[in-house]
Amino acid sequence: MEQPAKPTFPASDLSAAFPSRLAGDVRSVSAVMPDAKYSPLDPFRVDVQGETVTIPSRLYQDEPAAGWETSLTPPQQVIAHCLYSRHSDGYVRQRHIEQVLESSEPWTAPFVVRLTGEYVLEILEAIGHGLPGLAVPGSTQRKLYGDFIARNPAFFVRMERLAVNYWACYYRWKYATFGTYPGSALLEAFRAAASEHTGTRWPRNTPSPV
């Protein structure tokens, strides 16, 4: 059986990572970003409110010079932080995703959820601290992430499985059971958001937390 083609990601055009209405804003952000050392890697496709976006798993562009924010509007700054949350350096990813978490824009959700399937413990903890609304029924954050996960069930399953794999490989010595791992609580909160959004119990693809 023929395999579906992997999505490609042009190094010169980052607008595919966001809804088409933001293309002009993404170009403004790209103008302040240094040239890429390498092409973006392993793009993934997700649905954001009915529109498919293609987001790179890794970017290889240095951060802009100090003061870059002053030339961008607030929404453009969030776009920049989203993009740098895909940076190859984990410290850079953490700095920028922390600036994204308060946003209520639906197009930020895939950048946040993608990080739950990665291996940097401090990032998982930062996301957990930065999304207190996930624990609040009916909150804006629950609605935002519940809608995103409901539209992208296969993507979320992949994040669950990656989280379990990284726990087993790198953190089992510290967290004897998956339920005590920070990524487990975060995934539980996302599943609760999806359950509330759809009105049905969202399936689990990780070990039980108890």
Defining traits:
disordered N terminus, 2 domains, two-stranded antiparallel ribbon, 210 residues, 8 helices, mainly alpha
Please describe the topology of this protein.
Layout (H helix, E strand, L loop, with lengths): L22 H10 L11 E5 L2 E5 L18 H11 L5 H8 L11 H7 L5 H10 L9 H12 L1 H19 L10 H17 L12
Antiparallel strand pairs: 1-2
Helix pairs in contact: 1-2, 2-3, 3-5, 5-8, 6-8
Structure description:
The chain is mostly helical. The protein has two domains: 1-107, no CATH class; 116-210, no CATH class. Helix content is 45%, strand content 5%. It has eight helices and two strands; from the N terminus they run αββααααααα. The chain has helices at residues 23-32, 74-84, 90-97, 109-115, 121-130, 140-151, 153-171, 182-198; strands spanning 44-48, 51-55. A two-stranded antiparallel sheet has the order 1-2. β1 (44-48) and β2 (51-55) form a beta hairpin. The longest helix has 19 residues, at 153-171.
